[in-house]
Amino acid sequence: MKRLFCVCLLGIFSQIPLSAEPQFLNIYGNLGYGFGMGGYYIGSSDTYHGNNDPIETKDHFLNLGHGFKMEVGSGIMILPFLETRISFDLTLGAPSPEIRSRRTNEIVEDTVIDYSYSSRGLRVIFAPYFELIDNVEMYLGVGMVFNSVRSKQEITITISEPEILRTAEIVQEIPLAIGFTGVAGIEFPIAESISFMGEIRFEQMNHKLQREQVESLFNFPDIRTISYEQDDTERNPPPNIPGSNWGIRLGLKLWLL
Fold first, then answer.
1. DSSP conformation class of 63
2. CA atoms of 84 and 76, how far apart (whole Å)
3. Which of 106, 163, 175, 192 is most buried (most C-beta within 10 Å)?
4. How many other C-beta atoms lie within 10 A of the C-beta of residue 161?
């Protein structure tokens, strides 16, 4: 087994290009989209026809890693074939869940709960490189993710006969989460000191909801807090909201040194 491991390492290292002018420091940026893996059930929407009977029901799930991705960072070649990356990452949740429901008796009451969320964080990745074909390099990396999330619910209730509009806002407080990431990508030069990078990235992460701050309730000033606590007889345990996702990213890398 040890001999096989050594042979594999020698095979990889033999593909590493040796340059007379080794590149050392770079900055890069990329854009992409992340697809959530798993979700936390937050409710169901009903679609109605003329007599207010539901004809379709759709369940909604929340994943805090789902959405548009933007990243800027810097890389240092600590070895000719090994890059250390440090970057800042932003996720904008889109499309975010929107729950629509209706309650009917003598009047019709329509409720819309619109979720919005974003996350920002720090990524630290170690990525070994090897030459795939001429002028095209492949890298496989692993690292750590440190993410801070802001999530909010906007609730709108419309009542008919007479028409009344009520609104509420609930801000969810979620502490810093730590997770893991893996990346596989390719890189090739498109100009002097500029390279194109395309990659597939996986992130494994979960977020625990700590408290919900009700900042306004149905047009009346009202501030109250709903707290969650593990192993507490008086409070519910914190909901575990997934942030795991996989995504595709495209970007550019500028070599400075």
1. -
2. 5
3. 175
4. 8
One-character DSSP codes across 104-156 = ESSSEEEEEEEEEEEEEEEEEEEEEEEEEETTEEEEEEEEEEEEEEEEEEEEE
> H-helix or E-strand containing 15?
none
Question: Do 160 and 107 touch, CB atoms closer than 8 A?
Answer: yes
Backbone phi, then psi, for 5, in 5-degree steps?
A: -60, -45
The pLDDT tens digits of the residues spanning 54-83 come to: 567 889 999 999 999 999 999 999 998 999
Q: How far apart are CA 24 and CA 83, in angstroms?
A: 9
Contact between residue 195 and residue 255 where contact means Cβ atoms under 8 Å apart: yes
pTM above threshold 0.90:
no
SS3 229: coil
Backbone angles phi, psi at 178, to 5 degrees: -120, 130
- As a whole number of angstroms, the distance between CA 117 and CA 109 comes to 26
Burial class of residue 73, CB neighbours in 10 A (0-12, 13-18, 19+): buried
- 80-109: per-residue pLDDT in tens? 899 999 999 999 998 989 998 887 777 788
Q: Alpha-carbon Rg of the chain, whole angstroms?
A: 24
